[in-house]
């Protein structure tokens, strides 16, 4: 079956995952359309990060189905590298390569994985670094950058692969409050450009503003989901209500 | 709270590896020189009247000793080169995804790491042929070369452990980031993991070299004409018992003078690379 843009870009059906005895995902289903921005919120340990890692096969699932552009991820014959070329991911701890400069970090994968022309990649990398407002930092090593700057370089690094969807795993959780904003602005611009995004976050204000749909997870289950206005104004499930009461 | 003056383990700075490795420091040098001076003095007092000065005798034999010492250094270079070149792939095999590869490389590493060096040396001396035929040329394998191969085996095993430890010490996030960028495992190792390992491995690698260098006199047991063997030869040809202690101390001083700068450089590198 050929995937067409009117079908979900990512669709999960009854996804189960355990780490040893701990059941992390207990039958999660969701759909993300092209251009949609979804935010996943929920208490720690509710399986949010694992959910994202399943989408680009960093974590194998036990049962269920994950389709990315019509391609089954839960398939032993899956070409993981082909999948990951389409799916960008940004991590809580940035995970920049410390021995490479910011520019080299952004250029590495397009050159060595996509085998693209070095000059063309450099042009794109410089543009991406400018886009995340870090002109002048191209030659800096990650250790010389603040957390927020590192995170923005990490976003540029993922974007350099020209992914169809971006996964954000609590990308502001490790940052100082004053640098959080710069990163959120970058993501918001990305969303405004039409990038499909799955965002795990604890920033409720950001979720309310940027998301088309907000999902709440608890105990390995998707408890409820709704457009942000509705979600924050009148949560239906008592667990959602309790969670929102605690943090808002 | 004064960090560094505490007995609480949790307050002490974190170190990779259990204990501080033993290495030469300036006090060892001072003690060595003092012992040498004392030994020369005692020797002179014991000497029969009319025998040549001990210092003069030591200087007389210095060129020969230097020749032997050069062989020690040559063996240490070669053994280190062989050990490193073979130890790196062995260490990488220890972090392989294939369980069989991992298990067998682990076994080889542990076997050579925990065998006494002298036993390995004897094995190589006795089991390796005195010449090998490569194509139509016959390559002789002199004793010093065979024992160098013997010394390179524990170096290989220690190198393998260094590589395994360094790869394991790279944060898991680096692998995840590389995976998410669709890099292959080989690319990740080559471009992301190993370059970061080199920095971490350099100080312990230099330490290993210093240990290897002071182990080269072991080859005197299997008859290689290195500095230790020559010192014995010198002593028997001189036949003067008062020379015994000064000569061996003199040889020890050579090793100290060679290894001490390496120990200093290792320390300096460790400080520079220390994660603050």
Can you walk me through this structure?
- The complex is a heterodimer of chains A (248) and B (276).
- Chain A has 248 residues and is an alpha/beta fold.
- Chain A has nine helices and ten strands.
- In chain A, strands 6-7-8-3-9-10 form a six-stranded mixed β-sheet, with helices on both faces. A four-stranded antiparallel β-sheet of chain A has the order 2-1-4-5, with helices on one face.
- In chain A, helix 3 (102-112) packs parallel to helix 5 and helix 4 packs across helix 5 (147-159).
- Chain A is globular and about 50 Å long.
- Chain B is mainly alpha-helical and 276 residues long.
- Chain B has one domain (26-46, 54-272): MetI-like (MetI-like fold, Orthogonal Bundle), CATH 1.10.3720.
- Chain B has helices at 26-46, 54-94, 99-114, 117-127, 143-169, 172-180, 185-215, 227-238, 244-273, and strands at 131-134, 137-140.
- Chain B has a two-stranded antiparallel ribbon with strand order 1-2.
- In chain B, strand 1 (131-134) and strand 2 form a beta hairpin.
- In chain B, helix 3 packs across helix 5 (143-169), helix 4 (117-127) packs across helix 5 (143-169) and helix 5 crosses helix 7.
- Chain B starts with 25 loop residues before the first helix and ends with a helix.
- The mean pLDDT of chain B is 89.
- The interface between A and B is medium-sized, with 25 and 17 residues.
Short description:
Chain A is α/β, with parallel strands linked by helices and 248 residues long. Chain A is 37% helix and 24% strand.
Question: Which bin fits the share of residues in helices of chain A?
Answer: 25-40%
Sheet with the most strands, sense and barrel status of chain A: 6 strands, mixed
Overall body shape of chain B? globular
Q: Bin the helical content of chain B.
A: over 70%
Order of helices and strands of chain B: HHHHEEHHHHH
Q: Taking Cα atoms only, what radius of gyration of chain B do you get, to the nearest Å?
A: 23 Å
């Amino acid at each position: 079956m050929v995937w067409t843009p009117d079908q979900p870009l990512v669709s999960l059906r009854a996804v189960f995952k355990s780490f040893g005895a701990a059941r992390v995902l207990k039958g999660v289903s969701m759909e993300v359309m092209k251009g949609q921005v979804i935010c996943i919120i929920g208490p720690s340990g509710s399986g949010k990060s694992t959910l994202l890692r399943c989408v680009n096969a960093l974590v194998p699932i036990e049962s269920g189905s994950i389709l990315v552009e019509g391609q089954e991820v839960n398939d032993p014959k899956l070409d993981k590298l082909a999948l990951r070329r389409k799916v960008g991911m940004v991590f809580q701890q940035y995970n920049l390569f410390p021995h490479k400069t910011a520019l080299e970090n952004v250029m590495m994968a397009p050159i060595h994985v996509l085998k693209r022309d070095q000059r063309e990649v450099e042009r794109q990398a410089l543009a991406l670094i400018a886009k995340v407002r870090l002109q002048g930092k191209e030659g800096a090593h990650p250790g010389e950058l603040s957390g927020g700057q590192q995170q923005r370089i990490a976003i540029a690094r993922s974007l350099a692969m020209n992914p169809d969807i971006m996964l954000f795993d609590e990308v502001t959780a490790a940052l100082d409050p004053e640098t959080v904003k710069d990163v959120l602005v970058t993501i918001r611009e990305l969303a405004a450009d039409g990038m499909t995004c799955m965002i795990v976050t604890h920033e409720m204000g950001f979720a309310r503003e940027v998301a088309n749909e907000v999902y709440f997870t608890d105990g390995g289950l998707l408890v409820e989901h709704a457009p942000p206005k509705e979600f924050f104004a009148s949560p239906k499930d008592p667990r959602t209500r309790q969670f929102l009461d605690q943090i808002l | 709270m004064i960090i560094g003056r505490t007995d609480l383990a949790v307050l002490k700075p974190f170190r990779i590896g259990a204990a501080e490795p033993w290495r030469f420091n300036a006090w060892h040098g001072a003690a060595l020189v003092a012992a040498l001076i004392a030994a020369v003095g005692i020797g002179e007092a014991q000497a029969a009247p009319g025998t040549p000065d001990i210092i003069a005798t030591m200087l007389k034999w210095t060129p020969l000793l230097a020749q032997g010492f050069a062989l020690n250094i040559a063996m240490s270079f070669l053994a280190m080169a062989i050990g490193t070149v073979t130890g790196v792939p062995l260490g990488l095999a220890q972090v392989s995804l294939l369980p069989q590869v991992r298990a067998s490389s682990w076994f080889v590493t542990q076997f050579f790491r925990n065998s006494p060096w002298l036993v390995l040396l004897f094995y190589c001396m006795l089991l390796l042929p005195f010449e090998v035929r490569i194509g139509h040329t016959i390559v002789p394998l002199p004793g010093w070369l065979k024992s160098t191969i013997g010394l390179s085996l524990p170096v290989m095993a220690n190198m393998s452990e260094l590589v395994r430890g360094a790869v394991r010490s790279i944060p898991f996030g680096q692998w995840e980031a590389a995976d998410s960028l669709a890099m292959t495992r080989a690319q990740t190792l080559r471009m992301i993991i190993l370059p970061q390992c080199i920095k971490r491995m350099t100080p312990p690698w230099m330490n290993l070299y210093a240990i290897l260098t002071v182990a080269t006199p072991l080859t005197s047991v299997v008859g290689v004409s290195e500095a230790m063997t020559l010192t014995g030869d010198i002593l028997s040809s001189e036949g003067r018992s008062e020379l015994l202690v000064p000569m061996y101390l003199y040889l020890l001083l050579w090793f100290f003078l060679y290894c001490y700068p390496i120990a200093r450089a290792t320390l300096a590198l460790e400080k520079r690379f220390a994660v603050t």
